[in-house]
Amino acid sequence: MMSRETILNAVLALALLVVPVTASYAGEQFYVTLATRVAILALGAVGLNIALGLGGLVSFGHAAFFGIGGYAAGILAQHALSMEPIVFGLPGTKQMLVIWLVAMAASGLAALAIGAISLRTAGVYFIMITLAFAQMIYYFAISWPAYGGEDGLSIALRNSFPGVNTLRPLPFFLLCYGVLAAALAFFLMLKNARFGAALQASRQNEVRVASVGIGPYRIRLAAFIISGMVTGLAGALFADLNRFVSPSMLSWQMSGELIVLIILGGVGRLFGPVVGAVIFVVLEFWLGGITERWQFFLGLALLGVVLFARGGVIGLLAGRERHG
Amino acid sequence: MQLALFIEQLLNGLQLGVMLFLMAAGLTLIFGVMGLINLAHGSFYMVGAFACAAVAAWTGSFWIGLVASLAAAAAAGAIVELLVIRRLYGRDHLDQVLATFALILVFSEGTRWLFGSFPLYLNIPPLLSGAVALPGGSQYSLYRLAIIAVGVLVAVGLYLLIQKTRLGMRIRAGESDREMIGALGVDVATLYTLVFALGAGLAGLAGAMVGAIQSVQVGMGEPVLILAFVVIVIGGIGSIKGALVGAVLVGVVDTLGRFLLPQLFGLFLNPSQAGLVGGALASMLIYVMMAIVLAVRPRGLFAGQA
Amino acid sequence: MAEPVLVISDLVKSFGALLATDHVSIDLRPGEIHALIGPNGAGKSTLINQIAGTIRPDSGSIRFADEDITAHGVAERARRGLGRTFQVSSLAPEFSALRNVMLAVQAVQGSSFRFFRPVMRDDRLIEPAMSALYRVGLAGRASVRAAELSHGERRQLEIAIALALGSKAFLLDEPMAGMGPEGSKNLTAFLDGLRAEAPILLVEHDMDAVFALADRITVLDYGRVIATGSVEEIRRNPEVRRAYLGDQA
């Protein structure tokens, strides 16, 4: 007997596939691009959901990982084009598989450094520190002109993936959809395993976890690193989607956006990021088409959700989560 | 010549420091007394700047504008507290972060709606538009000195308020035990509104004063907010003394860092490279300092002390 | 006599001007229930917290299973076999009773860095957890969220968790607190049998339970040990009567 949430998830997964495919065959490539944007933002939020939803770590600095992933893609592509080695004679590349690995490694390392320091603090300190470190990386990026500085970095031609014509919207969307699906499966697996149990328990009651002999710090640090890596992967894809790496990918607004995505959909829920991304992108393009001040209404909506509908859309539709 | 430049940068650092103190003091009070993290504090900074610029342009007087900025920011704070913040006490930090982030969106876009996307201009009042001679031979803006003076006055004022008045006593009691003061008959709701409005007013004052030397535009508050967070982390949440020490530290280190690091690198790199590397590293300096403080004192330098 | 499992030597802890723990020495021998009693504010909770590791003593040492654990953190001590229950139940509220105990089983079995196998399908976790729940009488409530359990059931769950840890010594902080007469009677009988598995350092206010269960009693007052001995000795001790028991004995 499937739960309401599982049915809802299945419907969403299907809709997110069917809509852009149909649009593509109808010649409306714009909606394919929109759907790709949804998928990539959802992926970024899935990453954050590991730290925030499962671990209760309110990171207001995940844009750092999103941006690092993006810059990894941009820098590698630029060096591949210019044929100049990056450091230690290492060449650039336009192969997505390699780029993704580098993006995840770089954001993972950043998450290790930031997490190791921030996770020694608690509560509000953690929020402020993650925000601060992300800001630090942002300022560094805009003051380093070699990779565009304030103007950002272009990717002249979208990077390549074996067997896929990434230059066309639909194949690239399907690629991103596949990555999102893999990430969701990974999230589910993590949540249900021993690691997820320890992580969720430390969110609910840190003292209890320590008193059974599990050290919360190491669990959280591992979760933070994994979380950063997934968000970094999303950043690399985002750079390829737009063929542009903007320093705004590192901004505090981006960090806020990632949290908003999760909250709109439902914190800790598997498809929370997906629902949130759909709502956000729809608002951005539909409401944004009506008024330039659409974020004003987003703010009001967000206030409404926080004050009155805590479980997000999934909470409203499928009720409270069952933990078993 | 070098000495004069150094002193000038040092004073700039102090000026940045007192501005950060105005922001950080409010933030740390709000957290200490109400247990609330407020991301919208940058919005009050912005409201203060816009109010001052708008009223100054309308009346022709900077000083009336300044009063307006205090009033507008404090009023905005009180209204926000009554409508939104009240519902957030005792809720978890995620909710507080999200709700106050939502407020940033509302304030920013709302301001853009009212005033458009172009920056407003605020001129230094004629009274303060002169310069003062510094040891070493250069001139320093009288206005910036005035800002430093205001900052010091506010610090003293806050000290007197907290340590010597009944309101301050209630604030200190509220910081140590929120539930008790309610039980003791203190009107907690009004106290909270007052503290919030006070913090907002200070932020607005800072925004207004800075508005005359930098442009008044939407989004001006958030970078300052984030710096204020760094200040609080270094100084210790809930501690005004920590906010002062942290603010001066951050202000001076950041300003001097941007001035000295390129020169340091200029000793062994060519000028353009030195500027580059030095500049980039300077932008990271205070965050590195924050990390170092945290490594030694995870709760900040003066945590737990008012 | 066998080596004591837990030896606390000359523990001192001050909070500012308040001397909460005043050169306390106490030990726990195999197979015994050692009760710790004293008036409110005597420093019992502070002492338990220092033994469990949530508070660091200013000086003194703690030896457990022949190892100096004074510098060890909470998780480290739990891994060594020190099972602690809390005065105010400390559970993972969203998890079911079963999942709460499974967490303890998971901790005992080794690393939590396992990412693949779903815990709800892992008999190596479920069986020991259910077995612990059976022993405390909570098996029927295994799938109920901890937040929805009654007060008494939460106390039982705390004990089940300590059992699942396979503890070599139990630190029970007022397990009877808030339990009605029926619950207290059951818990007393349960603890009586438990001492065979591992010795228990029991902090309690419920004097009936203390006198029924304790092999030895230590009385704490103003952070100091004022007497240690058998039930009879403590009942007869004039200082103890004056400080704490009044006419109860």
Architecture blueprint of SSEs:
The complex is a heterotrimer of chains A (324), B (306) and C (249).
Chain A: H1 4-25, H2 29-54, H3 63-82, H4 96-118, H5 123-142, E1 153-154, H6 169-192, H7 194-204, H8 206-211, H9 216-242, E2 244-245, H10 252-265, H11 272-290, H12 294-308, H13 312-318
Antiparallel strand pairs in A: 1-2
Helix pairs in contact in A: 1-2, 1-6, 2-6, 2-9, 2-10, 2-11, 3-4, 3-5, 3-9, 4-9, 6-7, 7-9, 10-11, 10-13
Chain B: H1 2-34, H2 41-59, H3 62-83, H4 93-115, E1 131-133, E2 139-141, H5 142-164, H6 166-176, H7 178-183, H8 188-211, H9 221-235, H10 240-266, H11 271-296
Helix pairs in contact in B: 1-5, 1-6, 1-8, 1-9, 1-10, 2-3, 2-4, 2-8, 2-9, 3-8, 5-6, 9-10, 9-11, 10-11
Chain C: E1 6-15, E2 18-28, E3 33-37, H1 44-52, E4 59-64, E5 67-68, H2 74-80, E6 82-85, H3 97-109, H4 123-136, H5 151-164, E7 169-173, H6 181-194, E8 200-203, H7 207-213, E9 216-221, E10 224-229, H8 231-236, H9 238-245
Parallel strand pairs in C: 3-8, 3-9, 6-7, 7-8
Antiparallel strand pairs in C: 1-2, 1-4, 4-5, 9-10
Helix pairs in contact in C: 3-4, 3-5, 4-5
Structural overview:
The complex is a heterotrimer of chains A (324), B (306) and C (249). The model of chain A has no long low-confidence stretch (mean pLDDT 91). In chain A, 72% of the residues lie in helices and 1% in strands. Chain A has one domain (4-318): ABC transporter involved in vitamin B12 uptake, BtuC (Orthogonal Bundle). Chain A is mostly helical and 324 residues long. A two-stranded antiparallel sheet of chain A has the order 1-2. Chain A contains 13 helices and 2 strands; from the N terminus they run αααααβααααβαααα. In chain A, α3 (63-82) packs parallel to α5, α3 (63-82) crosses α9 (216-242) and α6 packs across α7. In chain B, 50% of the residues are buried. Chain B is mainly α. Chain B is built from 11 helices and 2 strands; from the N terminus they run ααααββααααααα. Chain B has one domain: ABC transporter involved in vitamin B12 uptake, BtuC. In chain C, a hairpin with a 2-residue loop joins β1 (6-15) and β2. In chain C, 37% of the residues lie in helices and 24% in strands. Chain C has 9 helices and 10 strands. The two termini of chain C are 29 Å apart. By secondary structure, chain C is an alpha/beta fold. Chains in contact: A-B, A-C. At the A-B interface, α5, α10 and α12 of A face α4, α9 and α11 of B.
